[in-house]
C-alpha cells in the first residue's frame, strides 16, 4: 500500500450512510412499516425461543436447530435495522470505521450461517423420513451441538477476510456510502485501490458456501421425495411431506429473496439504485419475521407450546 493510501485510510475515521439518496423525503414514512416488521421479527423469535425453552415436549434436536435459526435471525435484525431506523428518525448517518466493518462481517457470516442451518435441518428431515429407525441414534443433542459449532466456525472463518480486505484499502474518494448498510460493494467503491481481489473473494467464498448448502439441500429433498413416492400406504405420503413442509417453505422463501437481491444487483444499471438498497434491508427483516410464524402456524407442537406459554402469562 502506498504512503498516500495509508494517509487516506488514516483520515477516514467514520463513514456517512446516505439511505435512498433519490428519495430522502419519504424515509420517515418507510420507517413505520420497517419498525413494525422489526418488532414482529424480534418478538416472534423471542417468543419461539422461550416456548422451546419452557416446553419439555420441544426439547428435541429438530427444535434446537430451530432455536439456532431464531438466534441467527435476531442477530441479523439487530445488526442492520436499529441503525437504519436511527438514520430515518434522528438523521444519525455517521458510523465509525470499525463499526462499519464489524457490521459487514456480521452480515456476511450470519447470512451464510443461516443458509448452513437450513442445510443441517434438511439433513435432519432426510434422516427422519428416509431412516426413521436410526433417527434417535443419529440426530442427538450431541449432533446438534457439533452442527452448531460447525455452522459458526465454517462461516465465520470464510467471512472474516471480507471486512479485513476492505479495511486495508485506502479511502480517498470521500466517506459517503450510498447505502443504508455497510456492504462490501458500497464501501469498496470509495477506495482508490484495486478492489478486484476483494470482490472476487466475496463472490467465490459467498457462492461456495451458499452454493454447497443449496446443493446438499436439493440432494436431501430428492432422496426424501424418492422415498415418499415409494410409500403405498394411504395418507402416509401427505403425513411424511407435512413434517418437512414448513422447512421447505422457509428454504424456498430464503432462496427466492436472495435470488431477487442478486438479480437486482446484477441489473443495477437498468433499475433505480434505491431498489437494491431497499431489498437488502428487507432481506434482513422479512425472513426473520416469517420464519417463526411459519413454524408456529404449521407445527402443532409449537402452536400448543405457545398457547401454554400465553396461559402462564
What does this 3D model show about the protein?
It comes from Octodon degus (Degu). Keywords: G-protein coupled receptor, Membrane, Olfaction, Receptor, Sensory transduction, Transducer, Transmembrane, Transmembrane helix. InterPro entries: GPCR_Rhodpsn, GPCR_Rhodpsn_7TM, Olfact_rcpt, OR51/52/56-like. One of its GO terms (molecular function) is olfactory receptor activity. The chain crosses the membrane at residues 30-51, 63-89, 95-122, 143-162, 200-225, 245-267. The chain has 313 residues and is mainly α. It has a single domain (3-312), classed as Rhopdopsin 7-helix transmembrane proteins, CATH 1.20.1070. It is 76% helix and 3% strand. The protein contains 13 helices and three strands, in the order H-E-H-H-E-H-H-H-H-E-H-H-H-H-H-H. It has a three-stranded mixed β-sheet. The protein is globular and about 65 Å long. The chain starts with a helix and ends with a helix.
Give the SSE map.
Elements: H1 3-11, E1 14-17, H2 27-54, H3 61-90, E2 94-96, H4 97-130, H5 135-138, H6 141-159, H7 161-167, E3 176-177, H8 184-188, H9 196-230, H10 236-266, H11 274-283, H12 286-298, H13 300-312
Parallel strand pairs: 1-3
Antiparallel strand pairs: 1-2
Highlighted features:
313 residues, 13 helices, disordered N terminus, Rhopdopsin 7-helix transmembrane proteins, mainly alpha
